[in-house]
Every structure is written in C-alpha cells, then in structure tokens.
Structure prediction request, 530 residues.
Amino acid sequence: MALLTPFSKVPEVNTATVLLIENEEELQVKLANSIVQHEKDFNVNVRLAKKLPLPVENKEARPRLDLIVFIINLLSERSFQSAETSLAHLHSDCFLGKVCFLVTNARCGSLTQERLLSVRRLASSHQCPVLCSEHRTADGVQASAMRLLTLLKVSAGMSPLSTTALFLSSLTRCSLSSDLEEDFLQ
Amino acid sequence: MDARARSVLSRVLRRVPSRDMGALLEKWSCLPEDQLRAVDYTRPRATLTEHIIGLCEDNSLGLKHVTNLEMIYHIENPDQGSWHACQLTDPQDDAASVELVQFKEQFKAHLLGVVRHISIKIKKHEDDAIWIRIAWGDNFHKPNHLKPTYAVHHLHTSYVFISNLAAKHKIFLSQALEVATKHTSIKEGHLTTKSLTAMRDLLLRRYPQVFPSAQLRILKERNAPPLHPCIAQEHSELEQTRHQMACEAFGPGPAPKLETAVYKLETRYRGHGSQTLAEGEEFFRGVVRFSSSSLLESFHHCVASGVAEGPVTPLLSAITRKGRNYFVITDKGPVPPGQSAHRT
Prediction:
C-alpha cells in the first residue's frame, strides 16, 4: 500500500503546502480561500481532498506536503470514520509534527461530546494537536486559517525562531489523561 | 346576481392577493374602466371585496362571468392545489388531426349527453394549453361551482393534467377525453405534484437535459466559483464524473420542482436478522417516501457531492426518465401498480 511520506520530495523555495482532508468538502474550500488570501510573505499551496489515499496520477505534480489537516465534523459519524481510515494511509514519519486535526461543531451540546472524546483519543495516540473551529462565521473561518498558517509556517521550516515541527508538536499535541477521560464520561 | 354567483365570486376574490387584484380585474374586462380605476386596492380586504361585488351587481354580471374570472385566475396561477397526470394511449388513426374546435365540440357533446346537470368551460391559453373547467351536478342538483374540476391538455401530446376530480366523476371525464382526442384508453400517470408547471415541464421534457453519450463529455459545474490558482483539488476526476452522473440522471440546470417521491415495497424480507420475518409467506410491506421543496435538486446535490455513492440507481433516475413519482417495487423489479404480482 503506497503510503504518503513527508520527506520524499525536495521542498521549494519560499513555498509551503497544506493538504486539507474533509469528507463533506464544504469547510475546506472556505478555509483554502482564507489561507491563500491571508498569507503574503510566502507562497502557500492548498490541496483539497476527500480522503486518502490520494490519486496516483497526481503524484508527480504534487509538491511536498508540509502539513496535513483532517477536518472532522463532530455531528457526523461518517466524517470521523473516514478520517480514521485515511490515517492508515499515512507513513509514520508524518506524525512527527506534520498532522493535525480540526474539529467543527464542538459546541453542539451533548451529541458531540463522545465523538470529541474519540477524536482526542485518536489524536493523542498519534501525538497530534486538535484544533476546534467555528465554521459558520467568516471570522471563525479566518481565525482557524490563521492558526493553521502558524502551524504551517513551523512545519515548513519558515518560523523565524527556528522551531521545528517536532518540537512544536510536543508542546501542542493532544494529551488525554485518565482522570480527564473520567470527567468527560460523567 | 344570485346567491350562487355571489358565493363563487366572494370565494375567488378572497383567494386573490390585493396586489394582483387590479391586473386580474383588468384582464377580465367585464367591469367598465372608469369604475375599475376608482377602486382603491389599499383598503382592508373585506371592504374591497364588498366594493367589487357591488360593482359586479351594478353591471349585472352573472354566473358565467364569475366562472370566467375564476378560470382566468387559475390560468394565471396554476401552481395551486394538487395536480395529477393521466396518459392517453392507443391513438386511433386520425388522432393527429384533431384540432381545437373539433375537440371542444366532441368533449362538450359527450359530457352533456352523459351527465344531466353539468357546466363546462373550455379556454385556450397562448401556449397551446387547453384549460377545461367542469362543475359537476347530478340528476337532483345543479352544478356545484364551488368545487370545479380543472383539466389541462396540450393537443397532440398524450398527457392530461387534472386537479380536484372526485372518484365518481372520473369515469365520465376519462370517457369524454378519450372520445374528444380519439384515443382508445386513458391510464394513470402516477405523478402527483402541487405545481402544474413542474408537472408539465417534466412530462413534456421542457427542462434542460443531458443525454448520456459514449464519450465522457465533462460538463462545466454550474455555480462553482473558480478557485484561486494556488488551490488544487486532488480528486478532480472523481468530482467531474460524479457531476456528470448527476446531470445525466437529474438534469444540469433548474429542474422541475417536484415535492415527493413514493416507493411502495411489496417484497420479501431478505435480511439476516429476524428469522420469523424472512420465513413468512406474506410480503414485507413498506413505504419509502422522499420529500423536499425541490426533490430533483436535492437528488442532484446528493450525487454530485458524493453523499450518495456510485452510479445513480435506476429506481431514482426513473423519476425523470419515466416522469412518475409513485412506484411499486416487487421482487421481480418495479411494476406499474395496475398489475399485481401474485406469488403462491
């Protein structure tokens, strides 16, 4: 099974690429527009996909991916399952700071709490951060885009403070301790 | 003006919104212009209605004029009430040469011969549609003008659209239509909607359609703003094929606005769960009902966005292909509800 590897290509000068994976294909377009409009210092390429594995035809043309974002809608079980199955197609090197989860609708009451817990469990087992996003307002989309851009800058190696993706991920990764889990389940 | 005419008139006037009232009365052209101009349409409805009824009485208008007004109103606003379609089959040799005058004469003659008290009005609209209004009575009662049946037929097509027809009058109307259009039989069309325009567009194929062709001609996706050059879709091929499938099944552009689709199941239960259900000789009866404000658009979106996977099932694409929205599914495949599948 061909896995998506992060280091198989040479990076381009002053360019970063982010891959947004979403089953519903709604928020990713808005986020993409917002990201591309906000970043002026360097070139940002955004690739949109519904799930992994990516089509083989695009392999040559695809630039090196610096950040892979899974967008999960907490109101849909299918969204979560699709993200879970897609994770299997990533090489383990990706999880050293190049993968992050973005969840939407985390505020929607008790419906989403269990699913949020499963997402957090998944993220902590892979040591990735979880971001919560408000996708219904333009401000919310812009805020999420800025956060993703911050992560992207670090993982593409463009952060001025010479932080590496691995170091950042050790600070931002989702951790789920056992007593927190009990809190949620109550 | 007698009480009957007045009640029909007040009923019609009640349904017309105030802003359309002026135009409607002008089109009717039964009231003199100076009186019409004097009507103040901003007054409360009750006074306005009384005023107009008063004007009609002054001009000694009768039931005939009132039914004319009602018909004009329905022709202008066809998307009310519930319409269903019937199809004329087996045309005789000279069916193609039937023209309007002949149709009118035959239709009226047949119905007047069969039903004692009946009131028929036939009008031809500009787009070649013949509108028929029938108020039914019987041996003891005068025609009931408060519950008229409307039928619309386009000459030389095989469809008739009917609204508000009681079961006991169905046979009379069917016979009259068969005689007047020179067809041998008429059968159920299994299409029911609220909107006449949607029904007409669907059956007479007056909506944008795409015909499946051997070469994969990719259609441009409508309403999709062009993406920024830095944004790239990974699965663009997949998306194009999905869009193509959706357009072939449900049309690329604005589709006729159907509201529901009903599938009645008369099949055997085939699941692995309950043993008792699977063993029974009885059919597992169920009804699946889809409803939406615009059903075909919803289906198009489902397929084009990937919510429903794979090629469009023929059960759904049969809605546009056959122009029906009521299906009965039996184990041997869908059959028209007239025939029944007997299993011993």
Remarks:
- Chain A has one domain: 15-185.
- The CA atoms of residues 12 and 161 of chain A lie 20 Å apart.
- Chain A is about 40% helix and 15% strand.
- Chain A has a mean pLDDT of 84.
